Amino acid sequence: MSSLDSSLLDGVPLAIKVRPLATEPLWGTQPSHFHFPGEKPHFEADFDAYFKYYAEQCNLIGCHHNGEYSSVETHRDIMTIAQLLRKSLPRTEVRKRMSDFLKSANNTQPGEHENSINLVARLMLMVRIGKVPHECSKGRYLNWEEGDLREFVYNYFAPPVTRGHDRIKLEKSFNALNLQRIGGIKIWWTDNLADHLRMVDDDKGLFIFHHASFLEHHNSSMYPPRFIEETLRTLKLLFPRYNPATKKWYEKVVTKSACGLDKRLIGIGNLNAEERQVDNFRYWHDRLLIMKEVYDEARPSTLSQFWHDRRNGPQWYTFWVALWVLVLTILAIFLAVVQCIEGGLQVYIAMRS
Fold first, then answer.
1. Cα torsion at 56, 62, 64, 70 (round to 10°)?
2. Shortest CA distance to 67 belongs to which of 115, 9, 131, 136?
3. Reported confidence tier of residue 313, pLDDT bands at 50, 70, 90
4. Between the CA of residue 306 and those of 184, 298, 301, 319, what are the distances in Å?
5. One-character DSSP codes across 314-337
6. I want to staple 195 with a disulfide (CB 3.0 to 4.6 A). Which of 38, 161, 207, 259 is the partner?
7. Which residues contact 244 (CB under 8 A, 6 or more apart)?
8. What is the full DSSP assignment across 262-282?
9. Bridge-partner residues for 129, per DSSP?
10. CA separation for the pair 299, 62 (Å, rounded)
11. Which residue has the higher pLDDT, 343 or 179?
């Protein structure tokens, strides 16, 4: 039996050799061998981050309450529903056709097909579609109830640009590492593309979607035109490939994190000065501007932040020169006091003798 035909309740992860069979219906047509631009060929094992997410969603929805929360039974059921969703069929039609191939269709409760459709939509898009009562998450979910999935996604991710700008350039220092160590912004890694670049917790937290491998290999029309390409550019902006400090920091985060972060994130590339213009971003334009405002308004409050914050070069040099003068002055006063004490002790000893 192929592992695609195995029950979700078995809890057995998809084998590496079977993963390409799963990605075709979920991501679109794939090359015969997975590879990354500018890199030596990689194989299916590089998609551990995505398939960790796949397993988590199957456990959350497909296996919950011993499989009674949804109507899908096998991985192949998931792939078949994905093919229906890619045909731009209305949700009601997808639900109707599921009864033709699901073995348990005649015994399902009203909400089980709905939960199954939401599960497959999540696996296809890495967007949290549908509310799951037993799901614990700080992020938002999208409520898709009718129409076809593609139209729903297009409408959500293509909002009009509402925040004005005057040809703002996002400087080289505007990256994830500096947002954290200079701006004091805590990064919350997310598997939900709808939360990407969203500021939360009174602008002290930032969601970042880390699945670069998924974005690079997604080859379907489920997203708006050039949406995937622009999302990758936001990751190149925040995780520049040729920035040693950012690379070292992210590799350290990967080793310590239990989130299953995508190692590919730090290797997808850089943006030049023209590409860092805010008006080159359509889908993520407003969220980038909000991040930029929060970053620019941040003022260092610790010595570490003062050391790393070099956005204003003359001010940085002035601060550290003044600090060193202060340290040297205190040291000189301390030495003078020690000298005075030493001299007083010598006089006291001489008088006693």
1. 150
2. 9
3. low
4. 12, 11, 7, 8
5. HHHHHHHHHHHHHHHHHHHHHHHH
6. 207
7. none
8. -GGGGGS----TTTTBGGG-S
9. 142
10. 47
11. 179
CA–CA dist 224, 183 (Å, integer): 32
Task: Judge whether 277 and 168 are in contact, CB under 8 Å.
Answer: yes
Closest to 50 in 3D by CA, of 123, 105, 131: 123
Provide the pairing of β-strand 199-200 with 205-209.
Answer: antiparallel
DSSP 146: S
* Contacts with 292 (C-beta within 8 Å, 6 or more apart), sequence order: 168, 170, 174, 278
Give the CA distances from residue 211 to residues 40, 50, 101, 137, in Å, rounded to whole numbers and listed in that order.
19, 7, 32, 18
Rounded to whole angstroms, the Cα distance separating 26 from 86 reads 9
Instruction: Report residue 125 as tokens.
Output: 């898009």
Distance set, CA 42 to CA 31, 36, 37, 61, 161 (Å): 12, 7, 10, 31, 38
Q: Alpha helices, DSSP H only, in 62-172?
A: 64-67, 75-86, 91-98, 110-125, 149-157
Dihedral, CA atoms, 218, 128, 200, 153, nearest 10 degrees? 60
Is the pLDDT at 133 greater than 70, yes or no? Answer: yes
H or E stretch covering 189: strand 186-190
C-alpha span between 55 and 59 (Å, rounded): 6
Strands 186-190 and 199-200: unpaired
- In the sheet that 186-190 helps form, which strands lie side by side, from edge to edge? 186-190, 205-209, 199-200
d(CA 250, CA 92): 44
pLDDT digits (tens, 9 = 90+) for 260-296: 899 999 999 999 999 999 989 999 999 999 999 998 8
pLDDT digits (tens, 9 = 90+) for 317-351: 565 466 566 777 788 788 778 888 877 777 777 77
Using pLDDT thresholds of 50, 70 and 90, give the confidence band for residue 13: confident
Return all residues near 53 (Cβ < 8 A) that are at least 6 apart.
126, 191, 211, 260
